[in-house]
Amino acid sequence: MIDENLLKQLEEIVNSVDLTVIPYQRGNSIRIKHFVIRKSKHGYLIYDSQANKQVTSYYSKAAAVAHVYCNVNRIQDHDRIKRLDDTLSKHHVDSLFYKNTVQTTKDELKRSVAELRLDIALHDTQDAKDQLEYYILG
Predict the structure, then answer these.
(1) Residue 46 is inside which H or E element, if any?
(2) Are 57 and 44 a contacting pair, CB within 8 Å?
(3) What are 41-71's pLDDT values in tens digits?
(4) Alpha carbon of 69 to those of 49, 54, 73, 75, 133: distances in Å?
């Protein structure tokens, strides 16, 4: 039924992976190793459970997870992650503004300009998210 060689290979893969690095959600928090990410009304807060203190906060979940992965893998790229998070935050708020303008304005010129800017803001938001996901997925 099940090939013994395949079963041994699968067992070796499972045993070689450090399961503490795999993120899991418990309640309203995400846990990765000894770090805890919690959503607040101002963004995502990162706590170090070993030091029992708050490390930092981010606007997006992707930036918070990327920050923790950099800590776990000992990569010192937190400034770039913060810049990407600030970019994502700015363009996300811009897209909300332009979307509202498109929905409420009666002026066609204003609507077409807002649609163009909305498209640019959505593209820049997605681009920042993609760069943050690169830190997470490698």
Answers:
(1) strand 43-48
(2) yes
(3) 989 999 999 989 999 999 999 999 999 999 8
(4) 15, 16, 6, 8, 11
